[in-house]
Amino acid sequence: MTGEAWAAFIDAELQSTCKAYLEKPAFLLGHSRTEQQTTADYAGRELLELVQNAADAASEMGGSGRVLIEVTQEALYVANTGQPFRRGGVASLMTAHTSDKPTRAARMIGAKGLGFRAILNWTEAPIVSSGALELGFSRTHARAVVAKLARQNAEIAANFSGANPNLPPLLVFPAAGTELETLECGTQTVVQHARKLRQDGYDTVIAAPLGSASALKRAIEQAGQFQPSFLLFVRALEEIRIRVPDCDEKCWIKELKDNGDVSLWLECGPDTSTQDWIVRQQVGSIGEGENEREFELAIAIRSDETNKPGKLHSFFPTSLPLPFSGLFHATLELDSSRKTINENSQHNNEVLQALGRLHAEMLAELRKSARISEPLNWLIAHQEFPDALKPVSEAAWLRARDLPIVQCMDGAWRKAVNARIGPVRYAEYLPPRLFGQLARIKAANTEALLRHELGVPMVDTKDIISTLRSADLSFSERAKAIVGIAKTFPEDKHDRRLLIDIKGKEMPSTATAFPPPADEAKRHGLPDWANARFIHPELWSELLAEVSGNVVRDKIHALRGFRVVEYSAEAVISAIRSRVSELLKKNRSNPDHLQASLLATVYSLHDRTRNRPQGVFRVRCKDGQWRDITTVHLSENYGKVGRTTAALYSGQPELLIGTPHENGFSEEPDDLADFLVWLGINPWPRRITEPLPEKWRQSIVDTLPETVQVTDGNTSREVKRSDLSWGYTAKATHDTVEALDRILSGAPSEAILAWLAQDPRLDPLVPVPAFSVQLEARDNGLSKFRTYEGTLPNTVHLDIQTSAWLDCQDGQRHAPRDTMIEPGVLSALFQAPRAANSSSELEFGLDKAHWRRGLERAGVVRNLDDLPEPHVYRLLSSLPSRQIKPEVGSRLFLQILERETFDPELGGADGIAFRAKGQLPIQLEGRRVWADREGVYYAQRDDFPSAAKPHLRLLDLPSRRNAKQVLARFGVATLQKDALNLRICSLDEVEEGDSIALRSRFRDSKPYIMALRKALSPDGTHLRRFEAVQLKVARRAEMELAIDDAKIVEELDPWRHSFDDDAMIITVDDTGSFEEMMDLGCHAMADGLAELFELQSGADFVPFLTSSTDALRRAHLQRALPSLREDELASLIGGVDQAFVSPFAPDVDAETLASGPAPARTNSRGTATASMGDSGGDEHDRVPNQVSSESDPSEVELSVHQRQPQNNSSQVRAIFPRRTLRVAGPTGHVPSPIGSDPNRAADAEHWTAAFERADGRWPLLVAHLQGSRAFGCDYLSFDSEEDCTEFQRDPDRIDLVSRFIETKSGSVRFSDNEWIAANSLGERYHIYRISFSAAGRSQAQLTIVQNPSARAEAIRTERELLVDKVKGREEFDLVAVANPAEDGRSGEHVATVAAT
């Protein structure tokens, strides 16, 4: 048609339309709403609908169509070649559902004429340029036409008035000719570009000015969504070009090949590529006669890369996913949006089934032509099919069953019905050479397809097992099959006969399979009668490689259905032992052979690093009977231990194991004894538990405390020892060894010693004793027995020590406690054991070291020093009755006194009995006799006339021994001179001659002796007395003493000493030589000084007294004090007088006393510290305590870390430091672990203050005052607040102080100033030792020692006080009060006091 013809046609159509609207005004409103609804239905498919129309135009012209999609900033252009618009097409634009496409001969995509309306979502001014036709549309033009109609019809006016929101239909009123030029602003530019595209060879151009940025965005997005595959199913198109802003132009060209395949040539800017597709198409029809309808099918798969599932196509992609790989096309009935199909359409259902069959047939054809290798992969649904498309999958799978597309393990292609399938994942483990009919599977989803969708028949598991058993499988094949079966077969289908044992034989179906031992020496076959088997090592190696698991245990667990058990000697042995028990019950085998074979097998498998296997194992004894190995002992065929045990149990064959041959060992391995011990045999006499024999009952009861506490674990009871009645309220069992009495009465002494020396159970250092007594008691006959948990004697040791079995040198057997290895002078009391000989060493291993150890464990002591305290006291008590001479007894007493480690308290009841009633060796009238102890004394000193000794009952011990130990060990008091009223009644003093030299030596030596004692033990009392002592030399001195109310006057023997007030008198023989006078006189003076300083010997003073010059005395002092320098010695010698004129002289003014502790300094970590020195001590600071800089000693919220003693070994301390006074920082409080706790104690000083306040005194902290001018303690305590206040005003009022208190929380060592203060203050100086409980610092124990420097029994030479050795000490338990504020002392720590 020409342009004029088109104009006339359009004008006529408009007039006809307007006339119709005037006649039927409702049509206009209906067409408006229909246009809007149709436009909305096609939203999202705007560009696709235009391209679809272009494809239909190309189809009418025989195909080979070209399409251009161009998006500019202003408009969208879709240009195409093919049939231009016809009258019917224009009419369908103006009126919906009037398209002439269904009447055309060509195969069309669209059929309703509605798709063009989709463009109205983007524009209100579309333009069409096609052939001679040019027309356009606009909202303004449509309103103008409707306004003209409204003037002619009131209903139209009412429907489209200004107040009514209805819009006039757009496409009903086209504009053409000159009206086209004035449609909208910018229309001319769009029309011009459309005409240019027409000039480029395109027959039709649809132009749409884009009315918004969002429309432009959606146009670009839809253009980008186009894919080259669009050309595969649209036959009429062979080229598509796409132009969008800011992107390279795309051009896709389709090329058809002779075999039906398609190549797509793709160009994007400078880049080009191709896609090769295998396309299979099919045309068919449905129905008959008038109901016959044609359909078209097509399937495309890429031949040059991996395919993925896509959308179902009906020329264009729908929204329905089709889960098969590839692209699928069918002409289907679509809904109005063309996005999905009509699900209830029978036509669609039949077309989709045809599509599925085409897919299966295409795969078979491509497989046959070798274009694909795995056709089954193309039948796998990668997701669930939508309900609408399930006809495709069902038809495809149904058709595939009758096609030879299943490749089997033998390489043949079979139909599904002719192939077979095995259990799950069978292809991984079944050998292909044995199962050719099974489908070959390379993926799990392929197996699922065969099993479920294609219905391939399954092979019976029994047939699989049978085939595998009958085949000659390699270890690798067998391992894969076993592992696969373990993973996929039910456990009751696992056949152990598939396993091969270590001998290469098939395992029995009832066998328990074990991995082969790692030790190749143990990899021999197990007995034929055993139901346990080792897996062949090569098979096991392959199994480990095949089965999954992180560790071997996991791998073994995976094979549990084959009864594979993790290898361990215990497991294998347990299985074999159970089998032996089973066979013995059935009486089917020789029992001796079975038992022996079991032992030999267990030996070959055992691992002594592991625990003994469970169960009972039997060995053949020497009497021919098989017994539980745990009740039997080694015998002479099993090494030195066996020979020893055999000697112990000689004559008791039922307790000894037979020969190795009798027990199944053809050879005698070196470690056979170790194996038997591991298996449970007794290397040493077996421990048994039996009722406590009557002979030990009283001994056990005697060791109990007066009040016996027994418990059942929940409740406790107290029972008086005196109330215990054996069998009624007390009973006991004890651990002993089997036949101990027979061993001690009949076994060789050497064998017993070898046993004692080598049995580890008898080691006295073993943490838990192997033998014990278990005592139970109750308070009456109606209550239950409860256990006593205290320590009781070891009855095994008692039996060994008290039985006469030890061969001694006198040819007799004695009890070990009556013998001694080296009795020496005590040979009359103790027999010496017979020494070990070479034959004992060869037979029992009893060399000298073991002989000595055996004697020690038997209770034989080396000498008196090793004898236990109870034994010593029993021995002392027995001496008179054994007719032992008093001289021998005196030597024994002296040896006991010289034992350093002897503790009388350990003597127990024996010690108490001896100290109360035991007889003593004494000197009486010049004779040594045994005497009762009443009136017996020990003469520690020899400073009274020897003529007086016959009048006294004196213990026969040398003088100058430790009198305290004599009293403690023997219960003999020291003879006191005061008790004898001893005094000098006559003195013949020597004033001239050699006596002058003696007095001069004494006077010149005093500074050096004073310096020595000051350095070693600065006891002020002794030093002050020594300073006042004067020496008197007499040729004769008479002494008067009273004994039993009789006065005796005797002369003091020559070269003896005595004290008379401040005079030390020595007697001399002035008829002798000068050398004799000097030597014996100096020794007499030294003895006197030893008495003064309470020393046992005056030997340290002799060098100073015998020296004739100060240089020599100084040299002796240097030797005695090698650590001091010359200047220190000079200070020590020269400062003696100054140091002790006023040893304690604190010098503290009131201002310093009132100022309190110095401010704490901050350490490098930002925490406050204070230097807490030794209170009043030397200049060396202690380790700083970390406290708050604002802490106050009376507060308890903070506390000081425990002070550590400073190591002063590298510092030289002057004996007499210059007198100083330093003010140290404060102490503080230990922070509570759960926050601030005002009741939490700080350090020991705070507990001291709390105790003093609780006891009614007023403490004053002076620990921060340090140096020689300080008080030498931590606290001053006053009896009243007034005294405390007055002292703070005048610190010189030392007389107001009630207690000088030094607080210690650990060991008690004195600094110089503390020691001086303690010696000077005497009864007013106190040590407070604070011991905190293990539960924390909320409880503490206080021990108070008054006048500590006078506690000589507890003072060490390094000035350490052993508080627990102090008699008469006071002890208190301190507990913090919950609320200190309640007693009116808020902010202070208060203690409750409980004296103990």
TrEMBL record:
Signal peptide: none annotated. It comes from the Bacteria. Residues 1151-1213 are annotated as: Disordered. Residues 1161-1172, 1201-1212 have a biased composition (Polar residues). InterPro entries: Auxin_embryo_med, HATPase_C_sf. PANTHER family: PROTEIN NO VEIN, WU:FJ29H11. NCBIfam families: P_loop_sacsin. This is Protein NO VEIN C-terminal domain-containing protein.
